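Hi F.,

I've been meaning to write this up properly since the lab meeting, where we talked about keeping a consistent format for the predictions we share between groups. The idea is simple: the sequence comes first, exactly as it goes in, then the structure tokens exactly as they come out, then a line or two of notes. No screenshots and no reformatting. I'm using this chain as the first example so we have something concrete to point to.
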Amino acid sequence: MRLLPAVAVLSLLLSACGQAPAPAAATPPVPVASDPAQAVLAASQRFGQLRSFHASLHMQGPRTLDASMEFVAPDRYRLQTDEGVQTIIGDTFFLQRAGEVRQVPVPPGLLAQWRSPLPADATAAELQVEALGEERVDGQPARRYRVRHASAAPDGMLYWINAAGLPVRIERQGQTQGKAFKVTVEYSRFDDPTLQIAVP
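Output, unedited:
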């Protein structure tokens, strides 16, 4: 199950080549969901309907990676990595290197996985979700959940949902080639009309 596809997507692309938070007192507490699995699924589905967002990724392990990504519907993505800025529009990767831009095809729908933290066809019956209480993310209240699935890593992932019912942080730990890794993805700038992605 693709609980966190961001790492695979970034690895593939790399191989080819804010506003201040409101005061704590002004923010209402995040409502407690009666069904944690439904809360996580609803947040993922709501996220998939956004017109734009910003994501920051940090990976620790055999390789350290810091990257960010911006999305503008329906199919525009901008990646910022140590290799520079790269743009993906539809199924075309605009590889920018040495002052030149080369168009490279990518598998159809590859980056669409960024549109939903959980697979679009996931159901509550497939998930084991444990509510872990409230925790602040970038100064804002959020509810933290542990999400597990039979086909994923035993520890599953941690999933933070804000007061608007949107995922603001996802964290996963596991092993790759026998070595431990930890990946954290944070989301912000939901439906920000100032996010624009032009053809390079």
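Notes:
Residues 6 and 114 are 7 Å apart (CA to CA).
Residues 1-27 have pLDDT under 50 and may be disordered.

If this format works for you, I'll send the rest the same way.

G.
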